[in-house]
Design goal:
The complex is a heterodimer of chains A (251) and B (252). Chain A is mostly helical and 251 residues long. Helix content of chain A is 85%, strand content 0%. Chain A has one domain. The relative contact order of chain A is 0.17. Chain B has one domain: Rossmann fold, CATH 3.40.50.300. A six-stranded mixed beta sheet of chain B has the order 6-7-8-3-9-10, with helices on both faces. In chain B, strands 2-1-4-5 form a four-stranded antiparallel beta sheet, with helices on one face. Chain B starts with a strand and ends with a helix. The chains are: A mainly alpha (251), B alpha/beta (252). At the A-B interface, helix 5 of A face helix 2 and helix 3 of B.
């Protein structure tokens, strides 16, 4: 099992050296990139919107439940704690985990199907660097679009939190806004969230592509690869999250 | 011309090719036949360069495949067309886009020239009016024709076909066979077809190679195959009731 793990790491690294090559034709690369942004990015907006709004609401309610017993704590502190939770963890990490499920399975199953139906062999026979041609646009699309999704998620999460607080009478909307602005260091918080987002986007794109591209067999194996893509991406995100949190916040 | 000289290929303890020597001639449909597991597909993929041989050499004209630079190998691939068993068409592209893909990728043609080339090959394989359809919307026979059109769009010197008839009805299979032979003769390509189908052998086998257990056992033309006295060939060719009756009729 340990040998398999290290063999897998080696195969992944070798695949990435094939992926990050100059595209044969830039025109085809840009065309594929636009398509991937549509498929992997724009099509994920709906789930990110719903998830972020409700996640913000839940975080506000949970925080209010913990702090509202103490009359000495001003209610805008609930909003401030909500802001910290959403900015530092919930938006970059939880949304990336959801995207690993949605986008990762899509990438792995589409590449796996191309592998078992010999479409990747057809590209290789033509002399096309299939790894670069197929995987690079997917990774670049996520590196470009996931930060946009996460910034959107931050705003929606905060809005959802403020709305939930106001509707349930926990924190008035104006106090939520005040709490969100309290001791906020935009560059530090946003920078931290975006660094994590970019790393997670690379993990989702590359790990799921590796799972799909290396499929051997038929339809059953494509299904297994799709599951593996999600599991591997999620594990890698959780591990990277721990390392990045330690690295950025403690330095 | 493609020459395979003493090709040896193993996967672990499984010795698939045990020293195969074959010359494949330009302007002819060269057929590789044999039972499942005889090494046909591995042989074809080794000639294509998808597998590196453990021994022996593959010659494309005067050049040895194993000694070519990476760049030369890449340009050689643009001289090769391949028709896969399942078609291997790109699902996300229409028929015309599939055929146009190699031109977009490698040719220096203008858009107008590409349009003209796509139209020419589509007409040549009788696919008029199917340009906007997607692979999932066309029949198996049409998919094979699209695959052939894509393979010849770059006007290749070499055409490889891996069981082009599999999954087709007998009538469509003959149409595909005849199409492969026509374009081979018309463009002077070196065509190598991997097949199980005896109808294909008799229909288009300008040069037939019979393989068994990783060896070349026999070679000849389609006219010679029915009269072969090689026991392995006889056993393979006259397995079906139909061909047994053909043999009886021939002997009479």
């Amino acid at each position: 099992m340990i040998t398999n793990f290290f063999e897998g790491i080696g195969a992944y690294a070798l695949l990435m050296t094939k992926v990050f090559r100059r595209p044969d034709r830039w025109k085809l690369f840009y065309r594929a990139l636009v398509k991937e942004i549509q498929l992997l990015g724009l099509d994920s907006i709906g789930i990110v919107v719903i998830l972020s709004v409700f996640m913000g609401g839940v975080v506000t309610i949970q925080t209010a439940f913990q702090l509202s017993d103490d009359p000495l704590i001003p209610t805008y502190y609930i909003a401030m704690a909500t802001r910290e939770s959403i900015t530092l963890e919930f938006s970059p990490t939880v949304v990336s985990l959801i995207l690993a499920g949605k986008v990762g399975s899509n990438v792995a199953s589409s590449l796996g199907t191309m592998r078992v139906s010999e479409q990747i062999d057809a590209l290789e026979v033509m002399g096309v660097n299939s790894a670069s041609f197929l995987i690079l646009p997917k990774i670049v699309a996520q590196l470009l679009f996931n930060p946009i999704l996460i910034i959107m998620s931050l705003f929606l999460g905060l809005w959802g939190g403020a709305m939930a607080g106001d509707l349930l009478g926990l924190v008035p909307f104006e106090e939520s806004v005040m709490g969100y602005r309290l001791e906020f260091i935009p560059f530090e918080n946003a920078f931290y969230a975006l660094i994590k987002t970019v790393v997670f986007a690379f993990i989702i794109g590359s790990v799921s592509a590796y799972s799909g591209y290396t499929v051997k067999g038929g339809a059953v194996e494509v299904g297994v690869a799709s599951t593996n893509a999600v599991v591997r991406s999620c594990l890698a995100i959780i591990l990277a999250n721990y390392l990045l949190t330690d690295l950025i916040l403690t330095s | 011309m493609i020459q395979a000289k003493g090709i040896i290929k193993s996967f672990g303890e499984n010795h698939v090719l045990k020293g195969v020597d074959v010359d494949f001639y330009p302007g002819k449909t060269n057929l590789i036949i044999g039972r499942s597991g005889s090494g046909k597909t591995v042989f074809l993929k080794t000639i294509l360069g998808l597998f590196e041989p453990d021994g022996g050499s593959i010659h494309y004209g005067d050049e040895v495949l194993g000694e070519m630079s990476k760049q030369r190998r890449k340009t050689l691939r643009q001289e090769i067309g391949m028709v896969f068993q399942g078609g291997a068409l790109f699902d996300s592209m229409s028929v015309a886009e599939n055929i146009r893909f190699p031109l977009e990728m490698f040719s220096a043609m203008t858009e107008h020239e590409k349009d003209a080339r796509v139209k020419f090959v589509m007409d040549r394989v009788r696919l008029e009016g199917a340009d906007q359809l997607f692979p999932s919307e066309i029949s198996g026979g049409m998919q094979k024709r699209v695959s052939i059109a894509r393979a010849i769009s770059m006007n290749p010197n070499y055409l490889f076909c891996d069981e082009p008839n599999s999954g087709l009805d007998p009538e469509t299979a003959i149409v595909i066979d005849q199409l492969i032979q026509e374009i081979t003769h018309e463009f002077g390509m070196t065509t190598i077809v991997n097949t199980h189908d005896m109808n294909s052998v008799l229909e288009i086998g300008d040069h037939v190679v019979f393989m068994k257990e990783g060896h070349k056992v026999w070679e000849g033309t389609n006219d010679e195959v029915l009269g072969s006295t090689n026991a392995d060939v006889e056993d393979y060719v006259f397995k079906s009731k139909l061909f047994k009756q053909v043999r009886t009729a021939l002997r009479k």
